[in-house]
Design a protein that fits this description.
Elements: H1 5-11, E1 18-20, H2 27-31, H3 33-39, H4 42-47, E2 52-54, H5 60-69, H6 75-86, H7 93-110
Parallel strand pairs: 1-2
Length: about 110
């Protein structure tokens, strides 16, 4: 994964995550490089410490072999990241959202 929501979705599974550090810019980003730099969140990227980094495609197989052999290597970092980024992973996010919306509507209607 790159630094996208996919990375955080997989974080909830507490399984090794391989994050790529290479990309080929789309033609529009080659023409207008500032459009890409605006999309990248370098501050948040610098805080990611729970992934295995892949810096070139040729290293994919060694990195996969490593995470298969040592799947728990970064487990504590992933658990800390879950606390930091995901709040609760109990499957009740939708219920909490509905409850919060209903509470706000009740508050608005009674006020």
């Amino acid at each position: 994964s790159d630094l996208s929501s996919t990375l955080f979705e997989f974080l909830a599974l507490n399984r090794p995550i391989i994050q790529t550090e290479f990309y080929t810019p789309k033609p529009r980003h080659r023409i207008f490089p500032w459009r890409l730099s605006r999309r990248l969140d370098s501050e948040r990227a610098s805080e990611i410490d729970f992934t295995h980094f892949l810096n070139r495609p040729s290293n994919l197989l060694p990195v996969i072999n490593h995470v298969l052999e040592y799947p728990d290597e970064m487990a504590s970092a992933r658990e800390a990241a879950v606390e930091r980024y995901l709040y609760k992973i109990d499957g009740q996010a939708s219920s909490r959202l509905v409850d919060a919306i209903e509470a706000k509507l009740k508050e608005r209607d009674s006020g």
